[in-house]
Amino acid sequence: MTRGRKASPQAEAIRALRDHLGKLAEHAQGEITAHQRRTLQAEVREVIGELGELLQSIDPISLPSAVFDPSNPKIVGRFVALAMVAQERKPLAELTQAYGSGVYAIYYTGPYDAYAPIRGTETPIYVGKSGPQVAGARTPLEQGPKLTARLKEHRGNISKATATLDIKDFHYRALVVQSGLEVSAEEYLIHLFRPIWNKEVGILFGLGKHGDASETRANKRSPWDTLHEARAWATTEIGKSPETIKAEVAAHYAKHPPFPDLQSVLDSFIDELRQV
Q1: pLDDT digits (tens, 9 = 90+) for 154-169
Q2: Cα 273 to Cα 76: distance, rounded to the nearest angstrom
């Protein structure tokens, strides 16, 4: 700095910051407890973040709000999910066995009152995935008939709920995908549609539950078995009542309106890809 010239406010602030950093370093080298050290580390990281934001704010060239990386598994999962939605809907009752693993969605079109909001819409009642039978499988043959086997299992469980459901009212979409991509695709499908039979939604889970002996199960009956009373082995104590479950379903659809058509699904997909 030139002699006699007063330092700018910015230079004074930087000098003060460096003085404080020196004192802080001396303190950190002293005798402090493990808790104090963890707290100090967390606070220093927070300050580093604030300094980074400051540096970006004074840069006349702005950074992009997002960087599109096609190799990101989550990005690939979104496109896989969209490709699945583009497939033809087929009757679940007419499912035939085929090779391949991947993702699928199940749709309900029947008269059951609790599911009236999704009748005739593009919102599935359940989505899922099935991984390959051999790790690293490259072809549908190596993957095995895992996708249709999983759908067949669901069909069998739904078919048992004769008092409330009719298998003829169910359709499905399925897509065989490269091994490993089914995980991120399923995650996005759940995020997008929030299907009420998926356990991640926390309302009407239990369709995928397997029939272990009731006397060995300490957990209560699943909401799905409570509402549909389909499986003989599901005899444990009821958790939520049918009335509570139906009320939660109604509240869910009020908060997350179903997609009326494919265009609305596509619009939502594009909205989430759009950079701010």
Answers
A1: 999 999 998 999 999 9
A2: 12
Reference 192, options 246, 271, 119, 132; nearest CA is 271
Is-contact 66 87, C-beta < 8 A?
no
198 is written with which tokens? 């998926």
Q: Which two tokens stand for residue 222?
A: 């699943």
What are the boundaries of each domain within the chain?
9-57, 73-273
Count other C-beta atoms under 10 Å from residue 233's C-beta: 13
SS3 (DSSP) at 221: strand
Among positive and negative, which fits the CA dihedral 80, 81, 82, 86? positive
Beta strands in the chain (DSSP E): 90-91, 102-108, 126-130, 170-176
Yes or no: say if 114 and 250 are a contact pair by the CB < 8 Å rule: yes
* Model pLDDT for residues 119-145, shown as the tens digit of each residue: 999 999 999 999 999 988 999 999 999
Longest dimension (CA), the chain: 93
Instruction: Check whether 1 has a pLDDT greater than 70.
Output: no
With beta carbons less than 8 A apart as the criterion, state whether 157 and 71 touch: no
3-state secondary structure of 102: strand
The residue count for the chain: 276
**CA trace torsion 115, 120, 121, 124 (10° rounding):** 50
